[in-house]
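Quarterly update from the structural biology core.
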Amino acid sequence: MDFLVRLAEGFIGMFQEGGNTFVGLVTGIIPLLIVLITAVNAFIRLVGEERINRLARKSTKYMLLRYTLFPVLAVFFLTNPMAYTFGKFLPEKQKPAFYDSAVSFVHPITGLFPHANPAELFVYLGISAGITQLGFSLGPLAIRFFLVGVIVILIRGIVTEIITVRMMKARGMEV
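Predicted structure, tokenized:
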């Protein structure tokens, strides 16, 4: 009998936790995203979408900048997950590669700029706890993490763009 009571309590407890998680999202990240989206769209309207598009085209003309500077700025200023909206300023063939670069950078930036992805700070803190226990400084770790992240997003962006262009051509799409 006691087993059935614990089973029933555990079963309903699972849904209560789901409800608590949902309420946390509704009162936490969802309003933040709505405000960020509204602010970014208002800024784009004030400055002018064509001006923003021109600036984005100029700053992403070269692969090196497109898959290093552009995603770094997106993640730094808009944070995760709003950073991915920067992709709307790119041509279709570059959007998947930009997304791949930006999503791959939300962890490496955390050591220097925790505001960019506070939800995943525990990953960096877990690694840094071991480094601290060994008596090493966290500064060099954070810088290395950042620099390796930039190299990785550049490689991922280039490879993803090449794959995307090939797939688009194979499907007869305009590139």
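The first helix runs from residue 2 to 27.
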